[in-house]
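Protein entry
_____________
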Amino acid sequence: MKDYNLFWTAFAAVGQAVGAIATAAAVIVTLWQIKYANRKRLRLNFSDKNVVLSENGNLEFHFVNLTVTNIGNRNVIIKNWGIKVSKKQNLLIVPDIKNPIVKMIQKPLPCTLEPEESMDLVFDIKLFLRNLREQVKDGVFSEKDKLTLYVTDSTGKMYFVKSEKTIKKYIDDNFKYE
């Protein structure tokens, strides 16, 4: 009879230990899921084939465009954007605030993006190409490189997208704007 009491006491102790470990694991998973669900998440899309036409057709504005979409569950404040050069250097893109079309298309930075909201960051294609050629000429980029564009939020976190084309391809495709 004494042996059975010892067996059941040991069995209960093992069951309690397993239950405590399972409870701790459940708490850890729950906390991780809350943190994961509430993190900031952005989707970036870059395009160099964008045109604004006036109604009467006498005005065309060609530009590159970085679309930023908030796909997370929190507001994100977009502070600035640009091109990543190296681990230590970035090229900051500053919009031409005198250009009325840029004023119409792009919200001023910093800009708050609510969940499921997006914004377009635009830059004149002529200036973009001129800057790319200068950077290649100065040895900052190679024509074979692909561009990495970024946006920075209010906490300093950077979000990246790599272009599909090489710098040479951007320059060749858009030679008419030179």
About this structure: The first helix runs from residue 2 to 37. Helices lie at 2-37, 100-105, 125-137, 167-173.
